[in-house]
Predict the structure of 50S ribosomal protein L4.
Amino acid sequence: MARRSALNDRAENDRVVMADLPEGDAPKTRDLLDFLGVVGTEGKVLLLTDGRNQRLYLSARNVSHVSVLPFGEESAYDILWAETVVIERSALEGGAQAKAKEEKPEPETEATEEDEPDA
């Protein structure tokens, strides 16, 4: 509940950005900082990724104003700490697909004589 309220507060103040995070073979802090400049973030930034992203974590580990966490593992404190929250687009899409799958019941099938094994 607190996490949702904190995220809503950031969204109401236009401090939530949805983006495709930079990809690459090796962790590079410069690439991450360039990306944050393009996105237009200022101050402390929380990057919420689609699952664990070791390369992005390594790129950000020596930048004091950037924190990287998998989407769904952030706390209310993490969100309130950041001036801007950047959410990886696939993290939201994956969460929406998973939620839709949970809400959609599996169709029930009845066993027929053909399905029963021969004795």
Summary: Residues 96-102 have pLDDT under 50 and may be disordered.
